[in-house]
Write a structure and sequence with these properties.
The protein has about 325 residues and is α/β, with parallel strands linked by helices. It has 14 helices and 10 strands. Helix 1 crosses helix 7 and helix 6 runs antiparallel to helix 7.
Length: about 325
């Protein structure tokens, strides 16, 4: 067994503690295991030259490189943050995650780092978890994922997701157990004062912090729209599905979200189209149909309004960046 290569993906706004928490525990484990045991080769990597974490702390980063395990920390998911806008700003990181997974190597998300994995398409048809506070939002954004908010760490075919913040240590102990043995993991937990027997988030859930029931209506409408992404938008049919009038549906949805169902649907369709443009060779016309537009001109205009680029320009720019990262990573 050789040294396990672990890379932590730093990006703007990530939690610095989640960048260094896993490496620090691996360092402790290496000391406990002793010099005769293969340890861990850890690096903090980024497709950017400069990264400022949450709170403004500037992180020293190395270029992307081949690693055995890529760890994706979480970010500050503050009230009112538009997650879609945040993820759109992290296109280079999401591309790096996707490329690493495509190479057959392990990917791990800490806390809401799972949203980056979802954007990279890695959670589709997989079991996953995240912080209990944001599990509903993850399930809404990735309806094909089997989100298990009660679990602390979930691994499904090479992709691992964890609960909030301190769950990075639960994952790190699993990693140590697999690479250095159960004895080293147990001793590391004792030295670091970490509970190495946790398996559930359930005891930590505070119902008072969960989204208020008053938003349940809009969340159900969003999920219905997500699951019928390619269908023609039909306000009457949507209203009938929820046993309310069109006027009532529009009013309640706007009260809870500040937008109309159509505006939400358009944003979701563009997000899906971006993913397809980045990861498939489908034509723009075919992708337009996949996300619900029979007229590719209408789709292109909408896409440009949301992203600032027409679909073909978006794909060209993305693939150029990807090729550059592969040459320099």
């Amino acid at each position: 067994m050789s040294a396990l290569r672990v890379g932590v993906l730093a990006y703007p706004g990530c939690f610095a503690s989640e960048v260094f928490g896993v490496p620090d525990l691996l360092t402790m484990a290496a000391h406990i295991a002793g010099p005769d045991r293969d340890g861990y080769e850890v690096s903090v990597v980024s497709p950017r030259r400069r990264v400022a974490a949450s709170g403004g702390a500037v992180l020293a980063v190395s270029p992307l490189r081949d690693v055995d395990v890529l760890v994706v920390p979480g970010f500050e998911l503050a009230p009112g943050l538009d997650v879609g806008v945040k993820l759109a700003s992290l296109a280079p990181e999401i591309a790096a995650i996707r490329s690493h997974a495509a190479a057959g190597e392990a990917v791990v998300a800490i806390c809401v780092g799972a949203f980056l994995l979802a954007e990279a398409g890695l959670l589709e048809r997989r079991r996953a978890t995240t912080a209990w506070l944001f599990a509903d939002e993850l399930a809404r954004r990735c309806p094909d994922a089997d989100v298990r908010p009660e679990l602390m760490v979930v691994t499904d075919t090479g992709v691992t997701t964890t609960a909030a913040f301190s769950a990075m240590y639960d994952f790190a102990l699993e990693l140590i157990r697999g690479h250095s043995g159960a004895g080293v993991a147990r001793k590391t937990a004792r030295v670091a004062l970490i509970d190495d027997a946790r398996s559930s988030q359930a005891p930590y859930v505070d119902a008072g912090l969960l989204p208020q029931p008053g938003n349940e209506f809009s969340r159900r409408v969003m999920r219905w729209l997500d699951q019928n992404l390619a269908a023609r938008y039909d306000l009457a049919a949507l209203s009938q599905a929820f046993n309310v009038s069109a006027r009532t549906l529009l009013r309640r949805f706007a009260q809870e979200t500040g937008q109309s169902p159509l505006e939400y649907l358009q944003t979701t369709r563009v997000r899906r189209a971006r993913h397809l443009l980045e990861t498939t060779d489908g034509t723009v016309a075919a992708i337009a149909v996949t996300v619900g537009y029979r007229d590719s001109g209408t789709f292109a205009a909408l896409f440009a309004r949301h992203t600032g680029r027409r679909p073909r320009d978006y794909r060209t720019a993305f693939r150029r960046r990807t090729a550059f990262r592969r040459r320099t990573g």
